[in-house]
Amino acid sequence: FWSMLLLVVVGLVFALFALDSVMRRVNHISTIVAPISICITFGQTCAVLLDLDVPWPAQLREVLAALNIFNINIQLLRPECTMEFGLYARVGFTLMMPIALVVVLGIYMAIQFSLARKTSLAKFKAEHEGKSARKYLAEQAILVLASVFVFCSIFFLRTILQVFNCEKDYNTGKEFLRAEPKTECDVEGDGSIYFWMYIFGWIGIFEYSIMFGLVAYGLTIQKDMFGFLGDKFEDEFYYWEIVLVSRKVLLMMSFLFFSSKVEQAWFFGSMVIITALVMHAFARPFEDDLIDVCEM
Which sign does the torsion angle of CA 101, 104, 108, 113 carry? Predict the structure, then answer.
């Protein structure tokens, strides 16, 4: 386990170095990122359809399950084959991810800063758009954190909110988790596993609210703070990434909490999609007209 964890950390650090190299060499990277982001969002949205109690054809179900890779679905790796990995473990793993990200980012920034100190200030500024090492690395850290927030929102909230998605068994009168039908939704027993999942669930919501608020606040005080995440939009719609994240989250919640009431799920999901389409058609927020068409 620890050797695999070390490999993951090293891999992520190298990935950050590769991303930094690409961003410094490619002009107008936002024009490349925008269509990729649209494709990822499409995959994430299609994957959450599996939450609905719909008898999807076997082949379509396999396709939707494969698209779950865009939602960082750990279950695709079948961890339960080697260890116990129920909802309790998934929630704990999800809560630890922001901390793990900060650790990896700290290692990356420490390495970058030590390399920058071996380079003359004039040379570093020439290679990094006239910015000092501290300013450049701070902007890189903010960009990475915001990018992960945008990409991982569905994964994070989908896992956390499963704790609150209970279904009543009319034979016994008790409520059980839909994601783990053997676990009773009982918060009165202090020692019960659901009690701790319930506490972790609220901690997760608190974590996400802080992250959402920080990103939204960051956009209001500095429009270009998030690099390619913001400069693909028209100047007046610099905040549109928050709108896109909200659309994904609301759609996921519609399918998750009304999974057994398919008609209501489709109704609320359709309302989210129609509202998003109307807003997009009115605003056309992307700088590239072709990307505006693709987003619709």
Answer: positive
